[in-house]
Amino acid sequence: MSTEALYQEIILEHNRKPRNFREMADADRTVQGRNPLCGDELTLWMKLDGEVIADASFKGQGCAISKASASLMTTAVKGKTRAEAERLFEQFHRLVKGELPDSDAKALGSLRAFAGVAKFPNRVKCASLAWHAMHSAIAGGEHEVTSDPESQGEGA
Amino acid sequence: MTSTMAPSKAQTPAFVERVDFPLLALNPGLHYLDSAATSQKPRSVLDAMMGYYTHDNANPHRGAYALSARATERYHAARERVARFVGVKDSARLIFTRGTTESLNLVATAWGRANVGPGDEIVVTGLEHHANFVPWQQLAREKGATLRIARVTSDGRVDLDDFRALVTPKTRVVAFSHVSNALGTINPVAELAAIARAVGAMVCIDGAQAAPHLPLDLDALDADFYAFSGHKMLGPMGCGVLVGKRDVLEAMPPYQTGGDMIEFVGDDRTTWNVLPHKFEAGTPNVADAIGLAAACEYLDALGMSAVREHEQMLTALASERLAAIPDVRVHGPSAAERSGVVSFTVGEIHPHDLATIFDERGVCVRAGHHCAQPLMRRLELPATARASFYVYSTPADVDALVAGIHHAREVFG
Fold this sequence. Notes:
The structure holds two protein chains of two kinds. By secondary structure, chain A is an alpha+beta fold. Chain A contains five helices and four strands; from the N terminus they run H-E-E-E-H-H-H-H-E. Chain A has a four-stranded mixed β-sheet, covered by helices on one side. In chain A, strand 2 (about 40-50) and strand 3 form a beta hairpin. In chain B, the strands form four sheets. Chain B has a seven-stranded mixed β-sheet with strand order 2-8-7-6-5-3-4, with helices on both faces. A four-stranded antiparallel β-sheet of chain B has the order 11-12-15-14, covered by helices on one side. In chain B, strands 1-13 form a two-stranded parallel ribbon. The chains are: A alpha+beta, B alpha/beta. The interface of A and B includes residues 3, 7, 41, 61 and 65 of A.
């Protein structure tokens, strides 16, 4: 399976220079995201203005896919309403699982770079970690989320 | 840098024939470098298991008919074969389990609950796999005992001074790995056991990464328990071993009850079968034990010293070639002090991304915390990539790994 489909230039670029990669002292929401299988960890901060996501930022460590995903996610949801962000998550999730028709994918803009993840099923969790954290943040959680609720860790 | 190693395209004959391993023969482009997770299986192991089911399958120890007697005999012979492989004369002290994890849980549960109490101390090391860490942590919590964790040095060895300082007359249990799964560090097990013995502590050794790779003489090792897995040493998944001292096994309560471990059941009490059956509740996993015995046969035919030598050659070769690549760090002690494990990082490239890039080239490595989160915390490493070798590994596998790292550096350059 060619990894070129996975490591799109925009993903590599956001991995090198992640956007919104900063702490947020006055955040309304803070959520820890963790991927137990590979050890990816991130903290997501969010500021809300009524129904609108006024600001979003993150810090953490993880693979290129999870970091670029967090970078592009925070960029994408800023200025969106909660409902719009949730809708985006739903579409993104279908995209990385290979379940989103091309006609619908167009609306995702630069997030479409993650379409290649569908061919790497064990990387879907990396791509969705930040989105699960976002989902939890707008739902009002102040807790830890995982993109892999079924994971019980790994073998030797 | 100057190289003392042979050039990578070594023309030496293969240590084993790839054709012996059906999965490798069917996948000629595969560079399987994850043997520390599980090994591939030789045809002789698969044939032995199929042969048992084809010719001798019945529930053993129910000897009312000849077929069952044959199954019993084959199971017994498998135990004797595995015992011989690890230098154990009294095969009744070799218990078949599902694997190292079950073996260690057996000890922590059956021995631990009967022998550990409030105020007692349990000493483990910072190198442990979760399977030799969490059962002791949980036992300590349950019993009001204290878990002490011996420090590791920055190059991934047990800090002996700290270990010595932690082992005191309060210490009831000392548990440590023979070989670290994450780094390949070979621990001085006889020395560690002697330190524990000096205070009368029970000694439990996780040998999952040692039994497949090092010559073992367990009768000569002063440990109460030694655990290992079949599937990491060419045997099938689902079959492992716990070797215990006979008097310790006889004195402790059973782990599970029912089936073969029963001697007599009264309405209000039960007596236990003799060793080894006392610790093998239910119908035993005969076919897998026979597979494991065949694996021991295969390894003994190669000679475990030769296996160790082969892996040392590959480990030294890989460590040297990786160290020559900019940004590559090989973690753990020097190659000579490690088993066939090379745990490494490449600059800022996440190990998970490395593994995906390698996979495209047929190179299988493990990426992550290797079920050793306490160790990774201590080394301040979120994750590493781990290449691990076995009898079928070759210098060409090292070449493929090196090429994969160069490719990854280009992609993430």
